[in-house]
Specification:
The complex is a heterodimer of chains A (89) and B (130). Chain A is an all-alpha fold. In chain A, 85% of the residues lie in helices and 0% in strands. With 130 residues, chain B is mostly helical. Chain B is built from five helices and no strands. Chain B is elongated and about 70 Å long. The model of chain B has no long low-confidence stretch (mean pLDDT 83). The chains are: A mainly alpha (89), B mainly alpha (130). The interface between A and B is large, with 48 and 52 residues.
């Protein structure tokens, strides 16, 4: 039963990632694209966690945690750059 | 007992996947950036939170090892999501909105992120709005 739920989860998250990709390519403003990248990072974190359940190994949690930090830092750096034209002043 | 836990894990996984899908779909459907900021918060809290709960339950029951990494991830996301949203909204306000025309007036002191507008501009905006 968990297998079927995981298959559904992989399908739904892949669809969500495709929607985010559409947002990145088709939106006009740069901040819309930054928001799409941020949402994409969140979707990828959930995908990594579900993959860890699928493989029955806790190795992937570290990858998910590092990806969460990376996504946060990249979003803040992008916003800071758009706002001020520089990241560390 | 095992069947009950299996059902619980499956329901958590399906609910979290649905919330992630709804978050991304809402980001396509919403009309402008300020409302678009609202949609992915569902994905952050309920989507990732449900997947993490499913993972905690699965590993403590079927693998016999209780891990707390997942709580760390969800705590980190809960801490950083408001900061990200605040940065995006602030950059949007400075880039795309006019402080006098597009933003509602906020009391006598104005918005802290903008410089204080000249008194004549404030009077003009008040006349236009009311």
């Amino acid at each position: 039963m968990i297998g079927y739920a995981l298959t559904f989860g992989f399908g739904a998250i892949s669809l969500a990632l495709l929607m985010n990709l559409w947002c990145i390519f088709r939106r006009a403003g740069v901040l819309d694209r930054v928001l799409a990248v941020d949402t994409m990072v969140i979707n990828v974190i959930a995908l990594i966690i579900l993959y860890g359940i699928n493989e029955s190994t806790p190795v992937y949690f570290e990858a998910a945690l590092i990806f969460a930090m990376f996504g946060f830092v990249s979003t803040v750096a992008y916003c800071k750059f758009v706002l001020r034209g520089d990241i560390i002043e | 007992m095992t069947l009950f836990v299996e059902i619980l894990v499956s329901v958590l996984i399906v609910v979290s996947a649905l919330f992630l899908l709804v978050g991304s779909w809402g980001m396509i459907r919403m009309p402008d950036l300020m409302t678009r900021l609202h949609a992915p918060t569902k994905a952050t809290t309920l989507g990732v939170g449900g997947a993490l709960l499913a993972s905690i339950t699965y590993f403590s029951v079927f693998e016999g090892q209780f891990t707390a990494h997942e709580l760390l991830i969800s705590m980190f996301l809960f801490l950083t999501a408001p900061i990200t949203a605040q940065f995006l909204a602030k950059a949007h306000m400075h880039r795309n909105l006019d402080p006098v025309r597009d933003v509602p007036r906020a009391g006598e002191h104005g918005w802290s992120t903008y410089e204080a507008p000249a008194p004549s501009e404030v009077a003009d905006a008040g006349d236009r709005h009311h």
